[in-house]
Design a protein that fits this description.
alpha/beta, five-stranded parallel β-sheet, Rossmann fold, 236 residues, three-stranded antiparallel β-sheet, 9 helices
Length: 236
């Protein structure tokens, strides 16, 4: 087990992945990577350039010509597309649904897979998304899958959007989340699912601190088991 871990966190929309992952990374002094922002960045450019998402050739050419960067500024993750800060533009429900569609295209996933793996190649990273444990880092040191009731997930996303000044309805937000769940779990490429060796955490009724405490407890437990195993091997 390496000194600085790769911690993979997966789960559906509204499960609390981003907030918990950001907090966990801060507690550990690790890099935080929101991979969903990468797909949203691609979706934003698709919308801006009016590209047909069913035209894989056009999408492939666009990906080859697009420069996506993630930077940490004042503790906040900023996403840049071809030098433009799109961090606020990519957080709308429309872009969220579009990102689910573009994430099903093989050339997009291939391009972003390479980028995602660069972030965690040296360890010391908390990476969250929907296929981190199963595809991006199947050998991650720690794997977590966050979930929550659909009602709670809907309320969280609704409150998040309202805080950003968006005119949304709770019922519509829940419907959008259900659609996103279906699209993510039914896609042919890297569908959203629980990795066999992932620790599942139900975040219903928990705040981010509570979720992080559960993660840290699991990490410490695994470290004790690993150290005990090494000691036994040395003794033998």
């Amino acid at each position: 087990m390496r000194d600085r871990f790769i911690i993979a966190i997966d789960g559906p929309s509204g499960a609390g992945k981003s907030t918990a992952a950001r907090l966990l990374a801060k507690r550990l002094g690790y890099v935080y990577v929101d991979t969903g922002a990468l797909y949203r960045a691609v979706a934003w450019k698709v919308k801006e350039k009016n590209i047909d998402i069913n035209n894989e050739v056009m999408l492939n050419n666009m990906c080859d010509a697009t420069d996506i960067k993630i930077r940490l500024i004042d503790g906040e993750q900023k996403v840049y597309v071809d030098g433009t800060d799109v961090s606020s533009f990519i957080r709308t429900p429309e872009i969220g649904m579009m990102s689910s569609s573009v994430s099903s295209v093989s050339c997009v996933r291939k391009r972003l897979l390479e980028l995602q793996r660069q972030f965690g190649k040296d360890g010391g990273a908390v990476i969250e998304g929907r296929d981190i444990s199963t595809v991006v880092f199947p050998d991650a040191d720690f794997k977590f899958f966050l979930n929550a009731s659909i009602e709670e997930r809907g309320r969280r996303r609704y409150n998040e959007l309202k805080e950003k000044g968006m005119d949304v309805a709770l019922e519509d937000t829940i419907v959008d989340i259900k659609k996103r769940d279906y699209n993510d779990s039914q896609r042919n490429i890297a569908p959203l699912c629980v990795a066999e060796d992932a620790v599942v955490i139900d975040s219903t009724g928990l705040d981010a601190e509570g979720v992080v405490e559960k993660m840290l407890k699991e990490i410490k437990k695994r470290q004790r088991i690993f150290k005990a195993g090494c000691s036994m091997m040395s003794f033998i």
